[in-house]
Q: What sequence folds into this?
């Protein structure tokens, strides 16, 4: 009996060593879009762009979706490549530089003099499923500040139809929605 137990334990030990864990392939997605020049020559002197604030619930590398009211789930095999706050902030900087609205776009050193300050906040960023379709839900607020006073506030609340009902469809719709939002903001600032 004792020999059978020892043989059984040796069998389990060696068979356990041969078990390989399968690695799960994780897809990583980014927020990345292009904006174009809005004016031929700068309309304003300088702007400081503060880091984008994102609702803490959505400022993770997890990509969230909702199939029921008040219930959020995250995709198991799909992630943002970086925090949404970092990706959106970089896109805003790139967009303002490309727009040529401002002579100088400042991002790091707040001690330098600047004419305007832009604050941005993402309140919602998730995918929702309704019947047989899915939508990217994006809510973004911008405050343009001059001399420590809010000159203008802009709010964009978007629900963009996804081409496919998966994480990639959501990422495409999110990029499209954020591109439209930033382009609209830049056009409004140019007027």
A:
């Amino acid at each position: 009996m004792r020999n059978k137990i020892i043989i059984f334990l040796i069998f389990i030990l060696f068979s356990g060593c041969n078990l390989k864990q399968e690695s799960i392939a994780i897809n990583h997605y980014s927020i990345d879009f292009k904006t174009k020049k809005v004016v031929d020559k700068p309309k304003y002197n300088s702007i400081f762009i503060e880091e984008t604030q994102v609702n803490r619930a959505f400022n993770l590398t997890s990509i969230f979706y909702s199939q029921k009211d008040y219930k959020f789930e995250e995709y198991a095999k799909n992630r943002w490549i970086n925090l949404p706050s970092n990706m959106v902030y970089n896109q805003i900087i790139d967009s303002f530089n490309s727009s040529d609205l401002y002579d100088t776009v400042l991002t790091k050193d707040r001690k330098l003099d600047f004419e305007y300050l832009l604050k941005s906040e993402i309140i919602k960023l998730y995918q929702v499923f309704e019947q047989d379709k899915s939508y990217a839900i994006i809510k973004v607020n911008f405050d343009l500040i001059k001399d420590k006073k809010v000159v203008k506030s802009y709010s964009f609340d978007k629900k963009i139809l996804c081409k496919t009902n998966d994480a990639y469809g959501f990422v495409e719709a999110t990029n499209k929605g954020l591109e439209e939002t930033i382009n609209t903001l830049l056009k409004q600032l140019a007027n």
Remarks:
- DSSP finds three helices and nine strands in the chain.
